[in-house]
Amino acid sequence: MSIIAAGPTATGTRAGLLALDAYNSRLRQPRLSEPPVSIILHRRRFLAAAVQAVAGVALTGWASAIRAAPGRPVADAGGFSVIDTHTHFYDSTRAQDVPWPPRDDKLLYRPVLPKDYRALPVPRPVTGTVVVEASPLLEDNQWVLDLAAHEPFIVGFVGNLPVGTEAFAGHLKRFAANELFRGIRLRDRKLEGTLDDPAFISDLKLLVDHDRSLDLVGGREILPFADRLAKGLPNLRIIIDHLAGVVVDGKAPPTDWVKQMRALARRPNTYCKLSGLVEGTSRGDGSAPNDVEFYRPVLDAMRAIFGPERLLYASNWPVSERFASLATVQGIVGEYFRSHGRRAEEGVFAQSAKAAYRWVQREQSKQ
User: Which residue among 82, 194, 272, 324 is least crowded, i.e. fewest CB within 10 A of its CB?
Assistant: First the structure.
């Protein structure tokens, strides 16, 4: 069965879409060519992370390090918003425990909440975050939304709903009634054949009807899937998480990966998060490089393929903490795009997130 193109997005968003189109049009003007980048349980890891945070900020030179006061609003110090489009929050001390992370994960199995994120030093203060689901449990969607109700730092949430089931439409209607519910993520499922499943496609069309987005996570296999889906549902905003698992080793990325990313980027309704950079090094001892030059080949490829208007800053915190400090993660992306001008910085750190997620302007996130 071929996919039938979805209808237009909600009329209430037309003015915003026009403004975004105008912004994107400016970004697509020719650019000068550039060359082809809580509590931690063990005291030793804590000290290593603190040292790396300071070193990362110093080496990248992306503004000065600003440490947010825990529990207090973070003021924007750079003249534009910084939206982190990929964080996970959960509370391992709650009565029903959490399905992820597992108890034996000594780094991640701990309460991870907005106050913990905001207590970390970063080169530029973060204005708000889009939280991404970290649980297959339906009611954990509500748990995050309840948390967000008292945390204006959270400007959006990407949930987890059972696509292709009779229950999906009702669940989407329930959660989309909350404006902070910005879409869903597909993970941990076999994608082969789903685009020929009428129930699966019907549910994704409902995302379009509700003006919600779709995140995809996985390896390189998600790229041709996303390409076909984006072609069939051109009004569905599709976001690729973690660079589709590309290996980051300081060298040019794999040719096949570049080719598939280029094919996907032809679809104007697709976006890609710049999460997965430090994770791609596979240095799970926290020693991922903090030098932007190590990541430049991948960042050069992504900038050339998607442009800053469709690339999103995303930390993948606290998972990224296993590989590098939050300061290093932000500093790598910030330093790279600073060298490409203010417009590129604004695109990657806020405007692209607005285009992809329509994140909610809350009191704390106002400039």
Answer: 194
Cβ proximity of 363 and 352 under 8 Å: no
Q: What does residue 267 show for φ and ψ, rounded to 5 degrees?
A: -90, 115
In a domain, 2, yes or no: no
- Please state, in angstroms and rounded to a whole number, the distance separating the CA atoms of residues 354 and 352: 5
CB 191 within 8 A of CB 221: yes
* Residue 310 forms part of a structural domain: yes
- Predicted local distance difference test score (pLDDT) of residue 126: 96
Q: Answer whether residue 37 is part of any domain.
A: no
pLDDT at 268 over 50: yes
Structural domain containing residue 201: 42-357
Quote the tokens at residue 339.
């060298």
Say if residues 182 and 212 touch (Cβ distance below 8 Å): yes
For residue 73, being part of any structural domain is answered with: yes
Strand pairing class (181-186; 213-216):
parallel
Q: Single out the residue of 234, 236, 243, 233 nearest to residue 278, CA to CA.
A: 243
**DSSP assignment of 229-265:** HHHH-TTS-EEE-GGGG---SSSPPPHHHHHHHHHHH
pLDDT of residue 36: 44
* CA atoms of 345 and 337, how far apart (whole Å): 5
Determine the average pLDDT of the residues in 106-135: 96
| Alpha carbons 23 and 17: distance in angstroms, whole number | 10
Segment 296-304 mean pLDDT: 98
More confident residue, 199 or 362: 199
Helix (H, G, I), strand (E, B) or coil at 185: strand
* Mean pLDDT rounded to a whole number for the chain: 84
What is the rounded distance in angstroms from the CA atom of residue 54 to the CA atom of residue 264? 37
**Of residues 1 and 109, which shows the higher confidence score?**
109
Q: Which two structure tokens, joined as six digits, stand for 186?
A: 């597909």
CATH number at residue 179: 3.20.20.140
Distance of alpha carbon 205 from the chain centroid: 22
How many separate domains does the chain show? 1
Q: What is the pLDDT of residues 29-75, one digit of tens each?
A: 444 344 443 333 344 344 444 444 444 444 444 544 333 333 333 34
Contact 147, 135 (CB under 8 A): no
Average pLDDT over residues 201-220: 97
